[in-house]
Amino acid sequence: MIGRIVNFFGDAKYARTRRRVFYLVLALIVIADFLVPREHAEYFWEALPGWSAVYGLASCVALIVVSKFLGHQVGLMRDEDYYD
Fold first, then answer.
1. pTM of this prediction exceeds 0.70
2. Domain of 7?
3. Which of 41, 53, 77, 81 could cross-link to 46 by cystine, CB 3.0-4.6 Å?
C-alpha cells in the first residue's frame, strides 16, 4: 500500500494524474470556502471568501522578502566557507 503511494508521488509517469488530482482538490477547497457560514466574523474582511488564504500567502511572501533583505543587504548571512 505504501509502495503504491510512494510510486504515485515519486514517479514521473503519474505527473499528469497527480496534477489533475491536486487541481481537483484545490477546486473543492475553493468551493467549500464559499459554503462556510461567516456570521462569526468580527471584521468585514473576515467575511470575504478566501481572505485567510490571501492573507496567509501575503504574510509568507513578506516573511521571505524581509528575511532575504536581512540576510543579503544587512549582512546577517555568512559565506558558505565561513567556518573553514
1. no
2. 1-35
3. 41
